[in-house]
Amino acid sequence: MPNNPTAAAAAASDLRIRLHHKEGRPGHHSHPHSRGGAPEKTHQRATREIKVVRRVLDANDIMADQNRKLFSEKKVFVLNMMSSPGSGKTTTLIKTLGKLMTGLRCAVIVGDICSTYDADQLSVTGAPVVQINTDEFGGDCHLAAHVVARALSDIDLDEIDLLVVENVGNLVCPAEFDMGEDARVVVLSVAEGEDKPIKYPLMFRQCDAALLNKVDLLPYLDYDKDLAVSNIRQIHPEMPIFSVSAKTGEGFDPWLEWLKGRIKVKLG
Ligand SMILES: Nc1nc2c(ncn2[C@@H]2O[C@H](COP(=O)(O)OP(=O)(O)OP(=O)(O)O)[C@@H](O)[C@H]2O)c(=O)[nH]1
Ligand SMILES: [Mg+2]
Asked: Which of 58, 125, 218, 230 gets the most CB atoms within 10 Å of its CB?
């Protein structure tokens, strides 16, 4: 592995992208019998893919530690917001920043595969926004630590207290990639069904809090909120869960208090 972790992450990422094109996505479609090939060859291929994925994650961890050190030196609290596409990350963030920016200097990094749609929406908050399009990095379905590090060159960390990273909409891969953040939050909308914590446990295990969003829609849905909460608790018993509506602003105060409390612990 190269000594430079950015180069290591990029090299591993390149290799992964090449495997992705040639053999399907590592760790996702590597069932040994899925292509009908010779068992030894598919076994070798699966072993190689696991090694490559391990290498990507190791390189990512090194880069995440460098980011974490920088965030500590600069006294910046970093929040990673994750969810499936459309759960309400951007809308929740706009509301959250609207309330927090009276006392805190904030900036946003937002990841999408393509488009500046979210950055355009978030710019109404007045916070500096950097849009990352991962199609420049092979169309990854998550933000990796080296990608965030590169975006930091467009943000003056001396001028902010809070950096929010809105991850690419995906309930699986973003949970695997540390970026040096201080807190992780998953947004789950009531329109997605109660079963998601059970089906995508890593995301709920890795996060420090859950926002159960779009509660204004509950009267129109056949949705068992108690069951959703109990499913989250099954995966992460102690996790704070905040029922909110980013549309109406309902339930935001406890969420904002929790976030301010976490920021205070780090920044004083
Ligand atoms: N009714 C209702 N709609 C909401 C709420 N929050 C978000 N929406 C709507 O849900 C849609 C998706 O919201 P976004 O904030 O773009 O979701 P996102 O998670 O940022 O989506 P991606 O970035 O594409 O993953 C938009 O049409 C929002 O207006 C809410 O609390 N209630
Ligand atoms: Mg968004």
From this structure: 125
**84, 87, 91, 143: residue to mutate for ligand 1 pocket, most atoms within 8 A of CB:** 91
Pairwise CA distance, residues 90 & 187, whole Å: 10
Atom of ligand 1 nearest to the CA of 170: 25
Ligand 1 atom closest to the CA of 248, numbered from 1: 31
Per-residue 3-state assignment (H helix, E strand, C coil) for 142-160: CCCHHHHHHHHHHCCHHHC
**What's the 118 CA to ligand 1 centre distance in angstroms?**
11
Provide the whole-model pTM.
Answer: 0.85
Tens-place pLDDT, residues 89-148: 999 999 999 999 999 999 999 999 999 999 999 999 999 999 999 988 788 899 999 999
Q: Where are the alpha helices (DSSP H) in 74-195?
A: 89-100, 117-122, 145-151
Strands (E), the chain: 77-83, 106-112, 129-133, 162-166, 183-189, 209-213, 241-243
SS3 sequence, 230-247? Answer: HHHHHHCCCCCEEECCCC
CATH code reported for the domain at 75-267: 3.40.50.300
The two three-digit tokens of residue 76, written as one number? 């910046």
Domain boundaries, the chain: 5-61, 75-267
Beta bridge partners of 187: 83, 211
